[in-house]
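Supplementary Note 3. Input sequence used for the single-chain structure prediction.
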Amino acid sequence: MEGNEQRARDFLIEMTQALDIAPEHASHVRFSGSGALPSIFAVTDFATAAIGAAGAAAREFLQSVSADVQEVRVDRRLASLWFGFTIRPQGWSLPAPWDPIAGDYRGEDGWIRLHTNAPHHRAAALAVLSAEADRSAVARKVARWRIEPLEQAIIQNKGCAAAMRSMAAWAQHPQGRCVAGEPLMATRATEDTGAAIRPATAARPLQGVRILDLTRVLAGPVATRFLAGLGADVLRIDPPGWEEPGVIPEVALGKRCARLDLREGSGRVRFRALLGEADVLVHGYRPDALEGLGWSAAARRAARPGLVDVSLDAYGWTGPWRARRGFDSLVQMSAGIADAGMSVLGKDRPTPLPVQALDHATGYLMAAAVLRGLTERAASGRGFEARASLARTAQLLIAGPRGDLSAHPIGSALDADWSHVMEANSLGPLQRLKSPITFGDTPLCWDRPAAALGSSAPSW
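The predicted structure, written as discrete structure tokens, is reproduced below.
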């Protein structure tokens, strides 16, 4: 077995073992293709394995409901490209993915990253810095701060920022030590029971499965996009006014998107009705946030016995940062990934992964957890809970093998990588990359194009 395939296989084994997926299903995942994304970390192997883990979980679910079970194939080139952007607009352009203020800044004693894509996060950072919304002005103000006090000040003001730490510093940090002690995926079957899972076919294994999606950029939407590609009925819920213009054409594929205010009476009543008819809930709220809205785990189970409940946090579920706001790019700074890239490659600024691999890999692990929960539900009727975090996914990548910088680089997508089907997105027509995974000869297939947030009614 070649080195890159062995690295992918090793990651796959760790991922499927963390979810208690039977080894036979991982053994029926085949990898093809060559090349790698340029990184000191084995990002392409990681991407290939994460998509393969979701495929192994789908294969196990198919077997549990007596559908045809076939070999799973993952193309490492397409897997790598799916960890970036999957669409090619025809005659229009995507909005900029980053706010102009977002990015890395040099402080008095190191580097810090500000995440300002959400207007309230930008306002929080600018208020701490007493700066106008101008990148040069922000840089001048950041230069006067030591990075850890600035990080803490922005976090306390309900903003998002991360000081750059080394991997050694993260390993000794109280939060780093807590994350290292957490499982990659914390899972458990619950005692409540629900109705049996509906019959499935190999072509659309999740046809009729209802998934309530309370996630936003980026890991959770990646998870539910994969599940929609297997035929699930995914209903995404966002609060009034929330927008993600740079990524919605990417991640809303196959979903219906509605709005509800969970803090308001009629919104809470409607959410309860939706949850009562859902098979799966996927949510990306920080720990205790849903509880604060009156939706504890016990309340969710009371509303829907047998629920498959999969949740995501940025910095882990234990430790002093368990409720800290975070995103992939911030976790890369905190956990030492950006520092290692800068140091090993001799760069003069933070050097993150070439793609947001923590988000995407965690998304496919969450999809695998949903499928694992549905397998449990099919077998016993019991509900299922799983928890993931970006920081724990980062720990798996950091602890794994280093990337092969001599491998042929996977560059931009070629004409052969794109599907010939033209997708009618709400912003305009587009092409999408071919599916990175097939089940026998069947690729992922979505029943509807990506739609704008709030374009559907909050109903099944």
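The two ends are 47 Å apart (CA to CA). The mean pLDDT is 95.
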